[in-house]
Task: structure prediction
Amino acid sequence: MIPISDEDLILHYYRDGLDPARITQIEDALFASEALRERQATMLRALDAVDALPTPVADADFAARLWQQLEPRLFERAPIAPRESWRDRLRAWVNPPQLAWMAATCVVAFAIGLGFYAGRQSAPAPDEIAQRRADDAAVRVLDAYVSAHLRATEGVLLTASNSDSAHLLDGNRELAASLVDANRLYARAATRAGNTQLAEFLRQLEPVLMSLANQAPSAAIQVNEGLRDYLRTTDLLFQVRATQARLDRNGERRT
Amino acid sequence: MTDDEARWIAKAGEGDAAAFRRLVDAHSGALFRVCARVTGDRAIAEDAVQEAFFNAYRHLRDFDGRAAFSTWLHRIGVNAALEQLRRRGRGGIALPEGDDDDERTAEVVEVAAGPERTARSAEIRRDIEAELARMSTLERTAFVLRHHEGQSLEDISMTLSLNIGPCKQAIFRAVRKLRAALDPLG
Result:
């Protein structure tokens, strides 16, 4: 007879996670085996005892009380923001998400420009030295910006996995969202520059950043635990740091 | 989801307080029930329900109608309950003891109960409650969602942002612990 585990009996009870063939096997085994029926009965007694516990019922005035507390929070008028000084406006402009996006756009535009320039220079009369210089400059700029991008990504991962502050996590989500776009642009630029290894690594980062950017605020605990587990089981954080260090070293070597 | 509910959701999304109030009235009881089972504490559950509705209101525009509104709301509620537990540093949760429902449970477990059997049923209830309180938060939450809320493993994994495997294992462990709690009593 095919062995039937306790897990099979549990899934059979809930009719979940088993294919029809396995359900039939379990039912046949239950029909044939007294011992298995006894095991199932013990499990059902436990579940019946759980069902016999009183159902938690909210007080009669719970909804009214809830609304009384909820309404002022939901519909409070947004306070009028004080007029910002030029310093605040400048600080808002150079905040990390905007900076990341601007930097990514600039570096890609710069890389494309250099590539175009190098192409123009080499087209009529191939000038290998000029081309190499242009390529080196493009790669150096790309490396420097990707290194900064990875530093920001490392910060986002560490904050998401270690921070308990809802305020910090809200900001972290916005930062992760801005890094998704930058990450995509850097991956494309790395592909264009022929650095497939870097491009591939950046593509691996994208789903992690996206899941952090799209996480509902109330799911913070699971995200933190899930992310900690993920970072523990993969060496993603190590790879981020190692890639960043490699790019920094490359930059130093080239200058 | 009824047509009325779809209308309330749309209006609440535009900032209509009365429409959101209707959603609160319609769903607060069920949300309290699941939060109370996850937390094992009525006061924490009430706070969780309030946070859940607050978060739901803020993200109402994100509700795309692919899942039922109650499923979406319960997902937020369960996470709000877990957040409340975490804020209070409550890994293991003590269920309230000795409230007015003792006799009711005993009657359900043993229909024709004499004094000895009533005592035994109360003992079973205490054992089960103690076992639920001893379970890890993940085990209890996954079990509550599967057993009481009837959620599929897939829905549970979405609610808890985990793969199906760990959710399944958590439910297995929970059921095994409950069974072990009853074993000494035969």
Summary: Chain B touches chain A through 60 residues (CB under 8 Å). Residues 61 and 104 of chain B are 43 Å apart (CA to CA). The first helix of chain B runs from residue 3 to 13.
